[in-house]
Amino acid sequence: GITRIHLEEDAGKLMHQEVGDSSMVDLNRAGIPLVEIVSEPELSSSEEAKVYMEKMHAILTALHICSGDMEKGHMRCDANISIRPKGQQEFGTRTEIKNLNSFRFVKQALDYEIERHREEILDGRELVQETRLWDSERKLTFSMRSKEEAEEYRYFPDPDLPLVELDKNWINELQQQLPELPDARRMRYQEKLGLSDYDAEVLSMSGEYSDYFEDVLAAGGDPKQACNWILGELTRMMNEKDQGLRELGIDPPRLSELISLIQKGTISGKIAKGLLPEIQNNTKSVQELVDAKGL
């Protein structure tokens, strides 16, 4: 579960040896607001940590707290890891792996650290509490700095920041206004729309996919056909063009119209695929394009 949430802002970062032996300060992200979510130390495997991150990502994007593009740094993970003998209550010496920017890297880095901790302990060497970085090319972690204890951070109140008191009634009102969350959406896709477990999971875990899917349905599109087109041809186009779903220029009503023409037998699925480039950023209806091409 979640321990607490910090509201912070990004600071500058030091860039060492970028120019000769000099150190420079990168202030590109300085002042950008961020949310730090601290979780309880109760995850017991790298796979569990990866799934937890995926669920967190789905919720944050569904609530439009962030866009969730991890490659652009919109969401990052600092993973803390320690191991202990079976039956031991207290945690072992921990290390923190900073700035992991993909779910795959979270799992790989934790797997590496678990094995490194195990070997250090079995060889009789003392583990050091430290912060480490993950090298995705060499598939290993390396030391960044010794890990500070809480008292070394020198926390103190800021006189310019007033206390913020959150009224319980206000919190309850906000809870009532929350949109449908990914797990509830997945269940609805399975139980009411008849989507497969896999399709429902993929759609519901992505705010980009599920919002677009909902818009296609609102325009009258068949759920299963809409899902197939989104996860099939549109995803292929996204990968080819390195674009988001909305950036393709195929708005949901036009995909709904395309699906309808297939179901009526006006055009085949093969012809429909060939029409997709024509539909992109075109003001004509799909029916008009079909008529103009004599299809």
Brief summary:
It contains ten helices and eight strands. With 295 residues, it is of the alpha+beta class.
Structural features, described:
The structure is a single chain. The protein has 295 residues and is an alpha+beta fold. It folds into two domains: 2-12 and 29-143, no CATH class; 180-293, no CATH class. It is built from ten helices and eight strands. The strands form three sheets. A four-stranded mixed sheet has the order 5-6-7-8, covered by helices on one side. Strands 1-4 form a two-stranded antiparallel ribbon. The model has no long low-confidence stretch (mean pLDDT 89).
Please report which band the strand proportion falls in: under 5%, 5-15%, 15-25%, 25-35%, 35-45% or over 45%. 15-25%
Mean pLDDT: 89
What integer value in Å does the Rg equal? 25 Å
* Structural domain tally: 2
> Helix tally?
10
Strand arrangement across the biggest beta sheet: 5-6-7-8
**Helix proportion:** 40-55%
Number of strands: 8
Distance between the termini: 56 Å
Largest sheet, strands/sense/barrel: 4 strands, mixed
Query: Which parts are unreliable, with pLDDT below 50 for 5 consecutive residues or more?
Result: none
- Judging from the principal axes of the Cα atoms, what is the shape? elongated
N-to-C order of helices and strands: EEEEHEEHEEHHHHHHHH
Find the structural class using helix and strand composition. alpha+beta
